[in-house]
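W.,

You were right to be curious about this one. When I first looked at the sequence I had no strong expectations either way, so I just let the prediction run and decided to look at it fresh. Below is the sequence, 518 residues in total, followed by the output.
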Amino acid sequence: MATFEWIIALLLGAALLAALAQRVGAPYPTFLALGGAALAFVPSSPNWTLDPHLALTLFVAPVLVDAAYDTSLRDLRRNWRPVAGLVIAAVGTTVVAVALVARWLVPDLPWPIAIALGAIVAPPDAAAATAVMRQVGLPHKLLKILEGESLLNDASALLVYRLAIMAMLAGQLSPGAFVPVLLLTVVGSLAAGVLLARLLQPVLRGMQDVPITLIVQFAFTFAVWIAAEAIGLSGILTLVAYAMTVARNGSRDMPARMRVPIFAAWEIVVFVLNAFAFVLIGMQLRPIWQRLEASGTQSGAVATALAVLAATILARFAWVFVYHAFKRWRLRGQPAEVARPTLGSGIVLSWAGMRGIVTLAAAFAIPETLPGGAPFPHRDLILLCAFAVVLGTLVLQGLTMGPLIRAFGLRDDDPVGREIRLARTHAYGALIEAIRDEDSLAAKLLRKEYAAVVDLNATHDADAPLEEVPGGPLRRRAIAAARQRAFELRQGEVIGDDAYRVLVRELDWAELSAGGTR
């Protein structure tokens, strides 16, 4: 019973922290990290542990699928150079910098563990950065670069992490064994992800019930990851390829009554996983701190964690500014209207390297023992460094990202808004054309209503909210009156609860279609 009570209390605490983060305009992972750190100092808090083999699967798989559904292939293709630079070169720079710093401060740290530590802290979690950037209107291109990076840098960093752990467990990993493993992992994982999506998608397409569909989606998510890992492929790469294929081809056939609750359920799952990742790492900090104190290495571990945090931040700055300098050199002699990287965009892109759930999950996944049964060397130090990097970047960068963007005057020119209005004129134009030959009263009303939508978006006011529809405020006011009347009818027992719920559901959909999503 105590465990259940703690779970409820922690979920409630996470929700309250997230609500507070929204009120102050900060990313909610920042406040979750602070809550997790505070939990380590609560004397009566439970000491839960998680199987290291389960950590990556449980925490990373659903987060990857959710991110893959939101990723635009078109924007990835358009920004492939900066995204590839961040995914490969920035991750590699961070791995090398952190490994060198860790080895310098802890000379007996084996190289595979030092490299694994670098890979653990290398992948930024752009969810925290984009949460702030959407609030302050960061230029669309920078936002898309960060979102593309967040999806793919997990794969590159955790591929290095996997090879480093393999080398530690096997004793050594020669270059002759490294290259085939790398090629098989990358090519085989991408092919397997696309193939599994083609095989499993017909099953999802034939489902019409929301709870059943959700369960099958989560089951397929974990099944794809587990199957890939079982045959020696990368669960991350396989799942990214699988999710992007399903998202690209399957969402068109899903009816609205399923899409809305299913997407909402995925958001809730990602939030809960973030909350428990920070809770679990917070619970590990107290025993880690006690063991370090008992061994007399507490001050050295803290110094190493702070040095790893500094190396992580500076390595990203180094790569971004090298890339921007190279790009400006390539564009020399080009017309002045050709867009060039600016100091402000470089600093913001560098400062957006906040770490999150992937770093925590990878640290959790470090085995507790070596094959012979000996304790895994420096596991406590790795966990401490991972949490220090997550907490440090989320607090230091997360709370200053908004003011930094505003200080440099970076603004979004709203290309998505223009595309939405263009798409509406075409889509609703097709809708009107489809019922042009109908002569019923309903058809006339629909043509008049949707013609107003086309006019509103074809000759739009750039400052008008995208969610607004013709007569939106009037509709919402009328719907609110209808909902109040339905409530009164139920209170007076003129209608029963069954009829009331049906009517309210109809009014809810009407409110959403009248711009009630704001």
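Here's what jumped out at me. The chain has a mean pLDDT of 80. And, maybe more interesting for your project: The radius of gyration is 26 Å.

Coffee later to discuss?

I.
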